[in-house]
Amino acid sequence: MSSLFRTLSLRAAVVAMLVAAVPTAGSIAQAQEQLAPSSNPAAGGQVSEPVVVLTLGSVSKLQKDVQYLASAVGQPQAAGIFLGMSAMFTNGVDTTQPIAITLPLVNGAPEPVALIPTKDVRTVLKTVEAQTGGFDELDDGTYVISVAGTVIYIKQSGDWAIVSRKREMLSTVPNDPTTLFAGMGNNYDLAVQLKMQLVPANVRAMLIGQLRQGFEQAMERQGGSDDESAAYAESTLDQLEQLIEDTEELFVGWNTNVEAKQLEFDSRFVAVDGSKLSAMYSDQQPIPSRFASVIRDDAAAYFHGAASLGPALVEQSRDSISGSVTMVKKALEQSDELNEDEMADVNELIDAVAGLVMDSIAEGKTDAGGVLLADTGSLQFAMGTFVSDGDEAAQVVKDLAAKLEGKPNTPRFKFDMSEYGGVTIHLIEADVPESEDEARKVLGDVLKVYVGTADEAVYVAIGDASVDLAKELIDSGTTNQAAGEALSQGRILMLPILKYVRSIESNPVIDAMVQSLTNENLSGQVEFTANSIPSGQKANLVIGEGVLKAVGAGIQAGQAAKQADGDF
């Protein structure tokens, strides 16, 4: 999981850096020693397909979606501001069609082009005349306006207006502009697509060079660093470079699905076919799981993931874990909370856990699942995960117990208490301080964590009430089960969790959220899935209407409570 999180973070970093480092024509010319774009890019310059495409849903879609969202969170009046603003500037605009901004490259330099749906751009220009100061019309029918000192050219092309800073760019848009944003447009409120391979190789190299230069300067400002930290940073830079060089497409989209009454967030990542990155993702496929039974309808929350790992991803994961261990140890060394002997014990424990994780990843698969059941006054949690050697996992805990023996305020360990279904059960107990009143209400006076170890699995159950749930998970894992097509998936239901929280300690905000969900017969569902696609992955996050209504009710209750207390 740490490798997946790191990869997702690196993807986000690449997009952020590309946006932040979009070069000007001058910097591109300096970096590439290229001439500025020709006066006629369509004829003499090198004009790429759009590297970035951004779309906004149609005005009518956005209006409908904003009205729905405002109503769902209990603030219908808030939609009025957006509706009023949009009505002011849409005269002449086709409110059923999306708006798009594309970013092609001219001789390597970005040149944005906007696409506005309208059959009569003159009407649109007259509508915004007060802001632009009027417009001129050239001999070929091209319109010219000035916005904040920048000259803008506009051309009517069928049912669309093409807008650009460069007059020559107007002729580069196809007769049917919708082909530039197929699959986007009104499918989303907001969508962005990046096609990395359309960025010239030398521009990508320039970005990578800037990254490395920034890293070296940061190291110098810190007076250098130890070899292990430098190696970890170098590994991160190598992965960023691989992402920049081997990414084919990156897509993110947000949609308000009024009919289904939910918010939807989609993402898609595709690597260059035949690249090392492509092989890494192609090797990652769903596999039968020992823990698939956590996917259950009565769960307040669950998470499950089971996938194969190819050699390249295994190696990258090992590097990530090794680097993370180095950083954790370095942070501990800089703290004053541990003496020298304690530091040595902690480092030994970290190495043992990291070694077990690395050995498990080396088996070429991941398999884990956890489930939470919640009801009024009752909370159960159990999880299981694949490990290469369950006996080694037990030994790690036993070694820890030996080092803590005799020290004050340490947990109590009971090993090899019993056996169930081929799983050896151990118990870890810790007193919950009297000062932690809320924790005691949830965990009791004594926190009990049951740990089960088997040949290739570790199970965990928190509290006596969760033991039977863990046994169910053990029983269901005697044979591997198919978990569908997802690499990983998860779900959270707000209502049962909120009911449990209210049974522990009620307050007006929690009460309002529970009441809202109960009255609407909603569960407050959030779902996540990640699936494999050729040379990449796609992910989907869905937030149900219940979440919106519950949050809205909670905000209103909180505001009312503050008013009653005189805080307003």
Quick overview of this protein structure:
With 568 residues, this protein is of the alpha+beta class. The protein has 17 helices and 22 strands. The protein has helices at residues 2-20, 25-32, 59-72, 79-88, 121-127, 129-132, 201-221, 227-246, 276-282, 311-333, 340-361, 390-404, 437-443, 467-476, 494-504, 508-520, 545-564, and strands at residues 52-56, 99-103, 105-106, 109-110, 113-117, 136-137, 143-147, 150-157, 160-164, 190-195, 247-257, 262-271, 301-308, 365-375, 378-386, 412-420, 423-431, 446-454, 457-462, 486-493, 525-533, 536-544.
Helix-residue proportion: 40-55%
Main beta sheet: strand number and arrangement? Answer: 20 strands, antiparallel
> Rg from C-alpha positions?
29 Å
N-to-C span: 45 Å
Query: What is the tally of beta strands?
Result: 22
Low-confidence stretches: 1-39
Count of alpha/pi helices: 17
Portion of residues in beta strands equals 25-35%
Shape: globular
Class from secondary-structure proportions: alpha+beta
Mean pLDDT: 85
Describe the structure.
The protein has 568 residues and is of the alpha+beta class. The chain is built from 17 helices and 22 strands. A hairpin with a 2-residue loop joins β7 and β8. The protein starts with a helix and ends with a helix.
How do the strands and helices of this protein lay out in sequence?
Elements (H helix, E strand, L loop, with lengths): L1 H19 L4 H8 L19 E5 L2 H14 L6 H10 L10 E5 L1 E2 L2 E2 L2 E5 L3 H7 L1 H4 L3 E2 L5 E5 L2 E8 L2 E5 L25 E6 L5 H21 L5 H20 E11 L4 E10 L4 H7 L18 E8 L2 H23 L6 H22 L3 E11 L2 E9 L3 H15 L7 E9 L2 E9 L5 H7 L2 E9 L2 E6 L4 H10 L9 E8 H11 L3 H13 L4 E9 L2 E9 H20 L4
Antiparallel strand pairs: 1-2, 1-10, 2-5, 3-4, 5-9, 6-7, 7-8, 8-9, 10-11, 11-12, 12-22, 13-14, 13-20, 14-15, 15-19, 16-17, 17-18, 18-19, 20-21, 21-22
Helix pairs in contact: 1-8, 3-4, 7-8, 8-10, 10-11, 11-12, 15-16, 16-17
